[in-house]
Amino acid sequence: MIRAVTLQRYLPFLQWLPGYNRGQAAADLVAAGIVTFMLIPQSLAYALLAGLPAQVGLYASILPLVLYALFGSSRTLSVGPVAVISLMTAAALGPLAEAGVADPVTGAALLAVMSGLILFLMGVLRLGFLANFLSHPVVSGFISASALVIIVSQLRHIFGISASGHNLLDSGISLLISLSDVHLPTLFVGGGTLLFLIFARQWLNPVLESLGCPGPLRSVAVRLAPLFALLVTTLLGWSLALGDQGVALVGEIPAGLPSLAWPAGDPGLWRQLSGSALLIAIVGFVESVSIGQTLGAKRRQRIDPNQELLGLGAANIGAGLSGGMPVTGGFSRSVVNYDAGARTPAAGAFAAAGIALATLYFTPAIAWLPKATLAATIIVAVAPLADLASIRDTWLYSRADFGAMLATIVLTLFYTVEAGIVTGVLLSLGLFLYRTSRPHSAIVGRVPGTEHFRNVERHQVELCERTVFLRIDESLYFANARFLEETVLELLSRNPDLTDLVLVCTSVNHIDASALDSLEAINGRLQEAGVRLHLSDVKGPVMDRLRDTDLLKQLSGQVFLSAYQAWVRLSGNESA
Amino acid sequence: MIRAVTLQRYLPFLQWLPGYNRGQAAADLVAAGIVTFMLIPQSLAYALLAGLPAQVGLYASILPLVLYALFGSSRTLSVGPVAVISLMTAAALGPLAEAGVADPVTGAALLAVMSGLILFLMGVLRLGFLANFLSHPVVSGFISASALVIIVSQLRHIFGISASGHNLLDSGISLLISLSDVHLPTLFVGGGTLLFLIFARQWLNPVLESLGCPGPLRSVAVRLAPLFALLVTTLLGWSLALGDQGVALVGEIPAGLPSLAWPAGDPGLWRQLSGSALLIAIVGFVESVSIGQTLGAKRRQRIDPNQELLGLGAANIGAGLSGGMPVTGGFSRSVVNYDAGARTPAAGAFAAAGIALATLYFTPAIAWLPKATLAATIIVAVAPLADLASIRDTWLYSRADFGAMLATIVLTLFYTVEAGIVTGVLLSLGLFLYRTSRPHSAIVGRVPGTEHFRNVERHQVELCERTVFLRIDESLYFANARFLEETVLELLSRNPDLTDLVLVCTSVNHIDASALDSLEAINGRLQEAGVRLHLSDVKGPVMDRLRDTDLLKQLSGQVFLSAYQAWVRLSGNESA
Fold this sequence. Notes:
The structure is a homodimer of 576-residue chains. Chain A is mostly helical. Chain A has 2 domains: 21-386, no CATH class; 441-571, Transcription Regulator spoIIAA. Helices cover 63% and strands 5% of the residues of chain A.
């Protein structure tokens, strides 16, 4: 298959921009408006979650959206700060800030630039396939555990107490110890917002429906509930001077748009952040691609993972250069963008303009916003991410997958998010390798009246005297080469009057050099014992390689097209 | 299969010692005598190779042999210092000694104890299977490259110059620079010994044969050539006072047997050596097991890898406690032991007694032995390890395997042995994962007149209208789950009037949770497009798992026993 490498390929906006028309623009503008109003509270909240000043979240929602619109391959994905990546940012920056090594704002910008460079480089090298090595259970367990860590970490803002800690145990204990210091006015604001947002999410839709409100309007009302909570509590913060009563407010933030600058940071800091940047890049990429694919599937639009790397890379570099934080495609924001009818990536650019306007004109008001409001926004946004059904399904289906998932969850909850995801990935790869190193094998016989061969222990089958048909259920490679030898030799010792052994290779997709050595050794050992070795059902690509090897030259038996052919020849009886 | 866990299992000597008779003892004693004479020069030489005083090699050939006789599972394996492990010891200790952190003797003993503990622990945990993850090409490339590094490193002793360096580049350049300083008396001894040993190995046998010497005697004569060279050059060293003429001699070494002591070494040193100890343990284990299996096969004796771990672990701990160095099963010594007719592991214990006697009574004489003699012994011993045929065969058979082999060789030659072996292992695992992540797949059709289905592009087959039989040649797991979705969807877009898709699962040995998600997604997407999804040839273990899943409940099509059954049902024509 020849790949058409054109400018269009690397700059996807060239595909849609030339034909951009008024209808599309109108749809995109409407979607952008809704997304903007949803993004303002979310951006502020995720900056808080990452331990950063509120404006950093806004900055990360301007330039990155424009760059993603130019380089990204998804037409509906909406990038910006998201919960899990913000938590990972907090985990990466926390120790550095505590040790006084770097201020978090510089660290966040650097982390974004580094993640961006990693993503962009991976895109250039076409390494998008690496994301496939994160298994669903590991990713799902990681996100569920992260959601729990995030919720517990935000409760301190709801209670108005100064707890700390980066994992469930630290945060939880710290929270319980300080619980007697609960600040009632803060709890009133935070708890009230939380209840309102839960109500909005769970019951606003049915309530509005019973009042005869039309569907699309109801949906918009639900989406804008966080913005409403933000406006009301900001108004309260200002009118009741909540700050004077000890309620933590966002406080004054610099007016105006961010200026572009390469983030300061010495080589030592680059080195210290490199591991975190890599993990943020990969987790962000996986999250973004799966969202993009889910939404793309609905409109039959394909996502190109390598192009996605370029888009997310550019977005993150942009985030870092404009004083932001690491970003990626967010699920809820992308769904809103999609539902609101966004037609092209221009919707993202329009939303960026919306956020820029808000940053220019509304920042003075944001000073009065209670942090508890943002914490409530975060809690309600991440609660659905804890996916208990997926944990249960994994447990029921595969203990091995569940093991990797559990390790991810436990480490994420009780140690660090980075240890959680890394351990999960390594464990799932290790389990796969372990499984393939001790393959299932079966002696097969003929299903009567057919040419089909199945396991003698599971099916009523016919056997052939002095001939054994052995099916090894795995590609033969170095990790199971010795296992193969042992299996065959054990079979030999159990069947002293064997004359023919047929290796049924239906499941053998590859034979590597180590396994070839083992097969040659097996052939020799069987020959010494007076047993002929035959192969059947060898696949085309495997046969291509074997053709010129010593194995085929020295094979004591034959290579049969199918097990049935071997059966006919070796039993000497076609109708057997 | 129930495993009989008895004391005999963990102490294999209980199996042979009770029935030990005079005939066996006589055979063992003869073998031990020959092995002892061969081991003396080898032990001294490998100590030199490891950068250690000569007696360390002798110490490592006493207690370890006794312990292996008690715990090891091979009846003919002979343990002691070997070339590759000695090179790895030199590589581990070199930097420490240069930095003045630890003296090499302490370091070597500590390395032996640590490797021994690692091996013993792996044995207790039954982790013998881990050795399977070193592929043949990587091990073979590593040993070939090590042999070359060893040869170049020993040339300095032959030329009598003080060159340094731990890899081919360092040693080679250092050697070339100092070549003008060549010390002629040393070159005379070293070069003479080298030529004599090469003559003995290549031509002594035919020459003796033409003189009418009987076969067994010829073989012993060839084996004892190094001992002869050692005796002659020691005599020369003493009679000509070669030391006064600048020829490097072994020099005085402590008389008497080593005393048992836990090697000194602070926690910092333990930590620094831990990586090297792990690599030495694993490489030594792999080498030992493959030798044991090769020899065991000839006498139909099985090697138990986990018991081998205990045997080698005990041997190395013993080596460390008695002032020795890391040991493992050596190929040439084991072959000698086997050829000389050793019947039980008692031969090893007898050889230990022989070495102990030599240590007690012959050490004063060893002082006059030129180091050049030992270097020549090493060079002749390791030269056959460079296995160019295996490199060529690997290149011809598999470019991927060759890639891993080449990386191992290049890094071992030009960087460090540890980097070489680690990179080789990781690369071969990575290549396997990469390969399984993008499986081969084929649309298959019926081979006319049979029930057999093969690739449409390779065979003349019959197809079924509006039905496609797709065979994916790999277990379905997280790394190829997305690939599977893409393959099916591309197939769908290329066949717009498809009504049925049969996934032929002959090669699918496992479906993990991620792949199950993908299959459910595929089923849904096909259903939307009006295409039924069927499965055929699902293996027993895979079907057991699938039975209670949503996939089977929601499957739009059926599960067929075989592709032919699906063909009959879907084409509606048994005789088609």
